[in-house]
Each structure stands twice: as C-alpha cells, then as structure tokens.
Give the backbone structure.
Amino acid sequence: MSYKIENTFLQTGYLEEILFKTLDMYLGGEDLSDSPLVKWGRRFLARGDYWYGCGSASDQEACIRERQQKVIALYHSFKKNGYDGPPISVFFDRDGMVHTYDGFHRLCMMKYLGMKADVNVVISYHDKNPERRGDFPLARTLKKMHKGKYLYQPVDDPRLRDFRVWRKDSTVRLRYILNNLAGKTVLDIGSSEGYFSRKIAKKGYTVTALDNLRDSVAVTRYLSIVNNIKLRCQQARWQDYVKGKHFDNILYLSVFHHDVLARGVDEAFRSLRAFRGATERLFFETPVSSRKISWVSKDKKDLYSFTENEFKERIERETKMKVTDTWYGIRPLFLLKRDDNVAG
C-alpha cells in the first residue's frame, strides 16, 4: 500500500536537531569538523553501532566527513528543486499513528526549508519487530468494532467498499451542521470513524475528534493522516474532557441515549451540565424516547419517554442553553445556543 502524505504529518525524530544545527553552522560559514553531525557519527562508531557504512571504512573520519557533504548536497538539491520524489518509508501503530521508518534526512531538509509537500509514502515491512512494520489494519479493526462488515458513518476507502453503512443520512446531517457552525473550533463527541470531524476540518475548522473507544480514535486518526486532514484525536469520557475547555461548537450526535443506558436517566441529564460555558453552539441529536431506539432490548424500551417539548425543556435547563432550531432526520437534531438567562 502506498499513499501521498504531507511531510508535516511525518516525524523527523532526534535527527532534526542534529541536522538543523549542522546546517546553521554551514550557512554561517563555521568550521564543520566538530559539527553535531560529525559528533553523532563518532559517538555511534565508538560504541560499535552501524553508521552509514562507516564502521568498515579504513578511514572513519573521512567517511563521516563524506557523509556530511552528502547531507549538505541534499540541502542544496532540495533548496533548488524541492522534493524530488523518492518515497519515505513508514509504518503505523495500533493507535493509527504514523511513524517514519526511513527517509529522515529528506524530511528534515523539507522541514528546515519550510516546505510542505505531498510525499510518496510506502509501508515498510522490513523490521524484525512486528511493532515497527506494516499498515494500520483498517478493515480488521472496523470488523472487530462493529462485529462484521459494517460502518456507522461513511468512509471513502476502497478497502471498505463492501461494508454496509448504518447512518446513511450522514451527508444531509453534515450539510445542516455546516450551515450552522460558528467561530473556528469544533469538538466532535462520539466521533466514531470520524466522518464529521474530517469533513468539517477540511472546511478549515480546528477540530477535535473525541471518543471513549480506543479503536474508534485509532481509525479516525489513521484516516485523517492518509487523507492529509489535520485533526486532534483524543480518547476520553466527554464529561471529563470538556472540563475547563471551550469550543465554539460541540457535536453531540447520538451519544445521549448511550449515556442513559449506561448511567440512568437522571444521571445522564445531570451530566449535561458539563456543557455549561463549554460552547456557544451545541448540536444535540438523540431519540426523545427509548422506544425510538431500534436496537434497544425489550426490558429497556420503557426506560425513558418524553414529548419533544418536554425533552427540550429538560436539556435547556441542564445545559443553560436555548434550543433555537430543530432538524428532523432519523432522529431530531436540536441546535442549542448559549443563553445564561435559561433557568438552571
């Protein structure tokens, strides 16, 4: 598998400081005989480690200096011609995070020169350590999450072409949300595969994708990286995460009824107080009755039931926000705006 991933998503590691300081010395006309790069080579060779083939050289110092000249030549090449196409080798960990395996020098040069480029990325399978090789197991992770070939939200990836999407209304929900966002920051609570997070981030918003499931966060992180979308991905309980933070917009889509089932009706409503002062706009989607939850067990069908007006009044009281609009899809989606005059 290969990708085009912007260089800013790929780590340069400890080599960055070594090369940056060496290049600073070179451009400042300083003597490079004891540059950070030269000292790095000497240190590795002194303890018998591999260092670019210099360990077997008859003149190790000459080999180190030659290596330094190649680095300087690489700098001039990138400055004149930009990124020249050779692939960067990477692997992904189980949390969906990308790690550079080979290509650190090229990445450092791009960063030093302030370049942004979509680089050719190939997945490395060479390392003996299984934790340091391979692509993220996207299809396998999703099948484990959803107990089969299912997606909660759409994912535009050919590996998932035969997966069934449960929330086929995601596109129209997204349109409503985009038309009603304000400011610049968005928190997506219960982000699942990250559909809303990615789509909103592509519009220029600063987005945090939040889920309490490690695999959901990993899938979201991975899909954002391979699609060159800048997202902040976090695993946490939303009630804990929002404390002391503020977002212009919070998406709370089809999460509340899960809180009700896990914590009880009254406790779930009380937890909504965490939204007080945390946002200017809250997009709150949920069934107003447990009978509207198609998959809930029979013994939970009568867990809660409100008229729409009763439900609005309750969430307004707990959040100290005002329902200003309602969008009707599979479930009602209430748009709440901050209103300190709401009784609490």
Observations:
- The longest strand covers residues 321-328.
- The two ends are 54 Å apart (CA to CA).
- The chain has a mean pLDDT of 95.
- The chain has two domains: 2-132, 150-338.
